[in-house]
Amino acid sequence: MGAGAASFKGRNGQGGVMQAEIKSADLGTLDGPVLLFGGPYSNIQAVEALARFAKARGIDGSTMICTGDIVAYCGAPRESVSAIRALGCAVVAGNCELQLASGAEDCGCGFAPGSRCDMLSGAWFAHASQRLDADAKAWMGALPDVATFGHQGERYGVIHGGVRDVARFIWSESAEAVFEEEWQALEKIVGPVDHIIAGHSGLPFIRETPRGRWINAGVIGMPPHDGGQQSRFALLDGGEVTFHRLSYDVAGAVADMERAGLPRAYSHALQSGYWPSEDVLPPGLRVPSLARG
Fold first, then answer.
1. Domain residue spans of the chain
2. What is the pLDDT of residues 5-43, one digit of tens each?
3. Which superkingdom is the protein from (predicted)?
4. Rg of the chain over CA atoms, in angstroms?
5. Is the domain covering 33-292 a CATH 3.40.50.410 domain?
6. Model-level pTM?
7. What is the pLDDT of residues 143-166, one digit of tens each?
């Protein structure tokens, strides 16, 4: 896997993390099934469940790609990083990796200042920063910001949120201009791509654009705000993408969060299937209050 130099600096006007330079990696040609996932979020039980799924399908780390944010809301950051490293899968840096590696004081998630998620993030970020050793943070700092690979004759780009703003929220209903802007930004770095795989927003989707498919693989560490406990990941096989539900030991993950003394809002989210706040979501993706019972 080849990579160029990179560095991290600053934040943008919306509170997202900006990269002064972008580090890219070429993952080569991956013509068999490729397992795509994002956001382990310090949920070791979800990481272990995903590893079991991959093993049962004969998929090893060389054909697994993570879109970043290994560490976040849940209670086992050190264990989750160790497990992802042991898998040997490719990882692009999320805002959480960049912030922890740089010694920042917050996650840089792009939450609106004063929102509930913004206020809750301080506790889990401090816990993660304290639990991760220097080696883990150095490994995070060496991760590429973007990656490319070939599959069935097409070229894919992999990013976290946005290209210049790693914490940019891009949704299934985002304006066409948003996808075009990001496509242009990525191609300035890595050259032409047929499709883009992304993460960060937490909701899996495929958006057909004039350029190609924008594929958000979803996250494994938190349910997609749909009232169910299962999280999501994707398989790319034969050029087609399918989304899959991931069942894991939710009670174990909640227990880890309780032992860590983390706020109950996110452990409740694992159990209820609903995020602690909808203010990060565009109106069209919010769930009417009556639907929550």
1. 33-292
2. 333 333 333 344 555 689 999 999 999 999 999 999 999
3. Bacteria
4. 17
5. no
6. 0.91
7. 999 999 999 999 999 999 999 899
